[in-house]
Structures are given as C-alpha cells and as structure tokens.
Design a protein that fits this description.
By secondary structure, the protein is α+β, with helices and mostly antiparallel strands. The protein has 7 helices and 10 strands. The chain has 2 domains: 72 residues, no CATH class; 206 residues, no CATH class.
Length: 282
Amino acid sequence: MFHWLEPLVQDVGYALRSFRRSPAFVLVALLSLTLGIGASSAIFSVVYGVLIAPYPYAKPGEIWAPEVRAVDGRGGHGYTLDELRTLSEIPAFSSVMATSMQPVLMTGEFSPETFNGVLLTGNAFNFLGVPPVIGRTIQPSDIGSDGEAAPVVVLSHRLWLRLFEGSPSALGRTLQLNGRPHTIIGVMPPRFGWYGNDGFWLPLSPTRTDLPFMAPIMRLNPGATKAVAEQQFSAAIKRIASEKPATFPSQGYTTRLRNYLDVTVASGEMRTSLRLLLGVGA
C-alpha cells in the first residue's frame, strides 16, 4: 500500500549515512545554505520596501509633488497657506493636502521630550488612504469654522508601543503638548510614516502664519493628464510670482510635477542597482 515510500526511505537513509561519514562537509553545506537564504530574504525585503511597495499609501502612483526650482537648481519656493488654496483651485487637481512641522514639547505624566510635530491639513489622512489600527484619524471636522484646530493627536505605532505598551486604553488619554492637553484619537499601522514614524500627527490650522514651510502634494482629476496639470500649475505659479516676486528665485525658475514614486531613493541608478542585486542574490 505504501510502496511509493520505499525509495524515499532509502534516499533518506543513504543521506544520513553520508552525513555521518562527512560531518564537516555537511556543516559547511548547511551554513552556506542558511547564509544564502538569509541574504536572499534580506535583499528581497529591501527591494520590496523600495521598489515594489515603497509607500503604504493608497494609489501612490497617482500622487504628484509640485516643484518650483531656480534655473541654476540652487533654490526653490516655499508655499504659504494662501498659495495652497490657489493650488487647490486648479481644475486638474482633485485634492491637495499639505504638511508642515513645528517643535513640540511633551510634558505631563511622561518624561519631558521634544518631538518634530508633524502638522497635516484636515484632509490629509483621507488623501493618503491609510486606516488607523485603532481609533480614527484627523478629519476636516477637526478644523473649526473659525480655522481653529482641535487639540487632538494621532500616534505613530512606535510611540504607541513605547508610551502605552500597545494598549487600546490609550484612546481618549491626553498628552501635554506645548503645555496644552491633546486627546489621543487614533494610532497608525507600523509601516505608516509621514515625515517620520516615531512621533505623532496634529491638525494644521489654516489660519497659522508662523510656520516655516508648507509642503503640498496632490492627486489629479480623472481624465486629467500630467501635461495639462503641469500647464495649469505653471500658470498658477506665474500668477503667484507676479504678486510676490521677492519669494521666488531672482534668476528665474522652472516648474514641474513629479510623480511621488520617483521622489524616492529607488530612482535612476539606485533602481538598477537594486534589481541587479536581487538577481545576483537569487
């Protein structure tokens, strides 16, 4: 009934006898195999995270980053909130989100610690399309009709583990940030990061004028091509530059939209090198 097992048993027995006769050879072979599997796994992890799925966001290939650069490549343009509103009115853009940062001192029940607080427009988490592990994310409703941002905070997965040991009871707790209590409303997944993955995210008030920079990104409307979007973007920047010439490079500037998948280390020679490394490792 089990005659098909006899050749397998014989092969296993022969292999075991060979192992006993040459233990050094077997040890070297097993070590080489282990190292090979480990190296291949490590290389694939890097390639997966950089080439195959560099961002955990929804449809990252449909995200575009605007670029204004001096003709000599040495300078650019930093956006204001008013300029972001101008960009959001460009017909080719379906949605525009923006990021800024500020130093945030955490005090209270935890040891004092300074973070780079990441500020996001109310639509940012919906734009990025990544659901939280627990709780909810910042929403447009967290910005009041007067432009005041609600005192809420979304934690990174790493900070959640560090401060609360991964307990769901963190929701509803408060963190003292810059002397003001902020309610924890959500926690993001381990792989999610936006301008860092070891801190937290706060809502960005559209009335603030004290922030050092605004970094916008956008998605295009269905049917809108990159060429059309770039033309409309260039026209909008030209209008802004005519109103605020001092904020633009004096020697002239160029404009373009860059696909977000190209704004990574996995572009140009790096992409080729990683593919070659994966082939060698395989």
